[in-house]
Amino acid sequence: MHSELFYQSALTSVPGVGDVLIRQLISYCGSASDVFRSSLSKLLKTPGVGEVTARAILNPDVLLEAEKTQRQCEKLGVRQFFYTEKNYPARLKSFYDSPAMLYFQGGADLNAVRTIGIVGTRQATDYGRRITEEIIQALQPYHPLIISGLAYGIDIAAHRASLANSLPTIGVMASGVDIVYPYVHKKTAQEMLLLGGLLTENRPGIKPDARLFPARNRIIAGLSDVIVVVEAAAKGGALITAEYANNYHREVFAVPGHLNQTFSQGCNKLIRDNKAQIYTKPEDLIESLNWDQPLGEPTLVDKTARALEFTEEESQILALFRQQPEWHVDEISWRTQIHVGKLASLLLNLEFKGVVRTLPGKKIQLN
Length: 367
What we know:
- By secondary structure, the chain is an alpha/beta fold.
- It contains 17 helices and twelve strands.
- The chain folds into three domains: about 5-75, DNA polymerase, domain 1; about 105-290, Rossmann fold; about 300-365, Arc Repressor Mutant, subunit A (Orthogonal Bundle).
- The relative contact order is 0.09.
- GO terms for molecular function: DNA binding.
- Belongs to the DprA/Smf family.
């Protein structure tokens, strides 16, 4: 008997089946294992599934590939997180296009209370590297999880500055965790495993490919409470990450630069188009995210969580209030993917427990 994780892994390896269709199949069949137990006729009733896809699901080679993946993960010490499981990063769960499966190697908490993504050009200047180091050093008392893409330039500067300041840092990869790209960053990647880690939606053995880089940028954006673009050209991966962050209702900051510098054009354009706030000092980030006290001092949410028992959904709601003290009901529903009707009941329970209070205009505030 194979585990449910085995079938979840198998489902992600079916040719032509992407993250959205995986959710559709789970919704119609009940579980990943039930998908593979389904008949051809039943699979064909699932919206978006044609005969080619249905036969691909029932192809025995898919299960053989899953066995290979399981062996590789066990050998590498890689953990797999499927989107239906509790250990899947909560920040990604509300997005329809988030990865169905994640592969993680390392010791970081993917549900860290505070997270920040730092991205930028591969052609970083001394100015860009210095600003990156200053940002991370200033945020050290708040102990955030630093997220970037392990690429040349600003990305690797962010990872190395995090290590220098004993902060956990995660590299989101456009390959399997066993294939570090670029290879010259392998030593840094290995150093990141203790406090941080390597994260990807790609199975071990998958080599980096041009189409995979934009896809990994959405993970960086989704995992981060705020994205800081340090340097960027008029086009490039950093701007793609910022675009995802805006679509995901994440905070975006951009470091302004010299008007005649190529790698300031992207940042200046984000600020001009109101797609990013201007970054001038670390306090800009701290004030925007309400990181007004170091992590070592428990917030009101943390103190209350210790004193009371909460359901998983209540805890999911409270996690939002670690980012800011006030939310609109519709925004809470969208971010948690909890139906407004059920959410009203959950918020009422939290109000009875003295954790939140209702304000005019369908707004909820932390007590």
